[in-house]
Specification:
single chain; 490 residues; alpha/beta; Urease, subunit C, domain 1; TIM Barrel; 2 domains; 9-stranded mixed sheet; 28% helix
């Protein structure tokens, strides 16, 4: 007997959509019964192929009995989303966010797995710090979490790298443009050395691209022409300096450096947050030289540098918002498949830190919250026709799972995979609101965004953890994951 059967679903995988019933046992998808009724009859389109994440073709037939059944007729069932770029701020910065508050916000937005960046206090660098962080997280997670490690500029010994890699970190993070000297790989030799240390390990190298030699100049000639800055002289000067210090040419140079280094060392590479037309053109020209994947954030797909005048400090993040032409190029990169995944770069700060009395744009910390709104921002791209629902799954679940060592467990609705499931009702709508945000940051730049779907239920390993009102109770069943299954390009 199964634990639960979901009946009447339209299952959405990266490969397409199919009418099916889903049986769940012990937190896993135990069986899938494909139905003969046409997906198109629900106005949801035709299935789009069978290569990536397709369900087992032998699964036709009627499922047996279950301890419980749920009718989800007319609804879409998607794999739980995987957000591969999140800052949960624990340890050391828990006034901004912590494991419980951040993962609770994630579940409310349909993110059932997230990968936590190592930039806390202290930064997570070695095996002991990874284990300490895991111990802090256990018992406090509403979603599953993979932990990432940072590589200092001077690198780690082979023994330290091997010891850390054996734990199954989701990635090793390499920063090329951070202001922290201990972690800034500001020369190509620094980058080559750190990548070389990962070559023979089951490890994913992630590079935040940039060129500090350009960024340090902060040349006003780097500011896009025609940016709307308003009449406030201090605000205009702050925004001008901010944009000048992070021009597209610095991003593109960093992209080229990273891809060439990965090609030379022959290691898989994931590029963090590329959002300029010049950076994207560089990716397109050089991507075939190495095993490279690329991420983008929803905010970079929705907002331009002109929006600083409207949103002020709340929109300040790195990389900065770009020109309308860059946003158009990024949307085209998502449509064409040049962008492999969407991530939130959830970087929360308290309201006082972000917009409190006396906090100017220049003094405000960088980063915006996003783990709770990533699904709805992605659905907005579906509504606009930029992507379809299977593409949403590919960008937000299937590709991140494959790339970060979770491809045998997450990102697909199929027999044997974790029963991490989202139930979306296409007959209702969602309006994103500040008031509904569960992060300690207590706001979202997507306030007012409306999409023609509603998230009705969220399941984590077969247990319902969220309904239309939000997370259910205080169940903290999330786990710290080991990501040792290897990596594959999307």
């Amino acid at each position: 007997m199964y634990d639960l059967i979901l009946r009447g679903a339209t299952v959405v995988n990266a490969s397409g959509m199919q009418a099916a019933d889903i049986a769940i046992t012990a937190g896993k998808i135990a069986a899938i019964s494909l139905r003969d009724d046409e997906v198109a009859s629900a106005g949801l389109g035709q299935a789009l192929g069978t290569d990536a994440g397709a369900m087992a073709p032998q699964a036709f037939g009627t499922l047996g009995a279950a301890a419980a059944e749920m009718d989800v007729s007319g609804c879409l069932v998607l794999p739980g989303l995987i957000d591969a770029h999140v800052h949960l701020c624990e340890p050391g910065l828990t006034h901004k966010e912590d494991f419980a508050s951040g993962t609770r916000a994630a579940i409310a937005g349909g993110v059932t797995t997230l990968l936590d960046m190592p930039t806390d206090n202290p930064w997570t660098v070695n095996a002991q710090e990874w284990c300490d962080k895991r111990d802090l997280a256990e018992g406090h997670l509403f979603a599953d979490v993979g932990l990432q490690l940072a590589i200092p500029r001077d690198g780690l010994s082979p023994e330290a790298l091997a010891q850390a890699a054996a734990l199954g970190p989701a990635s090793f993070e390499i920063f090329c443009a951070t202001g922290l000297a201990a972690f800034c790989h500001d020369t190509q030799n620094d980058l080559l050395r750190s990548l070389r240390g990962l070559r023979d390990l089951p490890a994913m190298a992630c590079v935040s691209p940039g060129d500090l030699s350009i960024m340090q100049l902060a040349d006003s000639a780097n500011v896009p022409e025609g940016v709307a800055l308003g009449d406030d002289a201090e605000f205009a000067a702050d925004v001008t300096h901010f944009l000048a210090g992070r021009p597209p040419v610095a991003e593109a140079t960093g992209v080229a450096r990273a891809i060439l280094a990965a090609a030379a060392i022959q290691v898989p590479l994931h590029l963090r947050q590329v959002n300029s037309a010049l950076g994207l053109a560089t990716v397109k020209r050089l991507k075939d030289l190495a095993d490279v994947t690329v991420e983008a954030t929803p905010q970079a797909l929705y907002f331009t540098s002109d929006d600083y005048l409207r949103y002020g400090n709340r929109l300040k993040a790195a990389p900065p918002m770009r020109r309308a032409e860059d946003v158009a190029a990024l949307r085209e990169a998502v449509r064409s498949g040049l962008i492999d995944m969407l991530v939130s770069d959830h970087a929360p700060h308290t309201p006082q830190e972000k917009t409190g009395s006396g906090v100017t744009f220049g003094k405000a910390p960088m980063g915006v919250p996003g783990v709770q709104t990533m699904l709805f921002a992605a659905l907005g791209l579906v509504a606009s026709g930029d992507i379809d629902l299977p593409s949403l799954v590919r960008l937000c679940a299937f590709n991140p799972a494959r790339r970060f060592g979770l491809g045998g467990r997450k990102g697909v609705i199929d027999v044997g995979f974790d029963a991490d499931l989202l139930i979306l009702d296409p007959r209702s709508t969602t309006t994103v609101r500040h008031a509904d945000q569960l992060s300690k940051s207590a706001y979202t730049p997507f306030d007012g965004l409306q999409v023609p779907w509603r998230l009705n239920k969220v399941f984590l390993r077969g247990q319902q953890v969220c309904d239309e009102q939000g997370p259910i109770g205080t169940a903290r069943i999330g786990q710290v994951l080991s990501c040792l299954q290897g990596s594959a390009a999307g």
